[in-house]
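Section 5.1 Outputs to date
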Amino acid sequence: MLYLGALILCTVLSLSLLKKIFSASLIKKENNLAALESEYERLSEEKSGLIKNNRSLDEKVAQTKALYNFTKDICKTLDEEKIFGIFKARIGDYLQGSGDYQLLNKDTDLSIYKGCTIFPLIIQADVIGYLMAGEIEDKDKERFQILAQQFLIGFKRAVLFKKMQELSITDSLTLLFSRRHFLERFNEELRRSKKFKYSFSFLMVDIDKFKDFNDRYGHLVGDAILREVSKTLKDTLRQIDFVGRYGGEELSVILVETDKEQARIAAERLRQAVEARNIKVYDEELKVTVSIGISAFPDDSSSASTLIELADKALYIAKQEGRNRVKYLA
């Protein structure tokens, strides 16, 4: 009986212990399961975050690629009007609104564009104009600024290229064609005149006693005289004619579709215009004169170098005969 009671007690104790062990194991499994569920939720959230980040990165890559293509298209040309045309044609792909975009002059009264978005076009610290956009939604204004910056890249490139070209063909002192560019134009006109059987005349113009002005008043006064005489020639000539600085105080002129007699009349008009002008330089008021030598195509030669040589010889004779006169070789 005692043995049976002890056996029952042992059994009860064993069952109780097993129950505790099972309960502890169950609790541990439940805790492990909760931890796994928590880790799963964390990983799911991380996955969602990564997917979202990937989408954001894909969008940024797409936007960057689109922006790159936008800039690339704008930079395909060096024509300012074409650049603006490309901008207007493409910006609708990126912004919503009225599509009213204008390129404004730097002197434009901006007060009449109230409510519009204005982007200043600044090149080398100078405002050269404005890019105006009409109705743009607030959410798109930042994007417009980005696109306008890309437009400015292409526009600046075109403006600076144009300035570089102007500097390469223009004499900085007189603002006439440089010798190199003038000679290029000379040869172009010679080819054109040969092709269409036109006449044209070449003038070599020299400021009389220019060295004396430099020695007496200094080179700054000499430079001012050169500028004023150059301006007088340009103001007196036709728009189809062109004038360059040949070298030093020598200026050169091509009179398009002009024979020798017509050139003599035109050269005399130039000589008189210079003689009649009072040149005010600092505290001085000076009078200067010019001597002019003429050669003509095809009467004198069909060679550019010979035409220049003949005009130079005629100029030398004009100097020898007393200056302030027009001369051509018979």
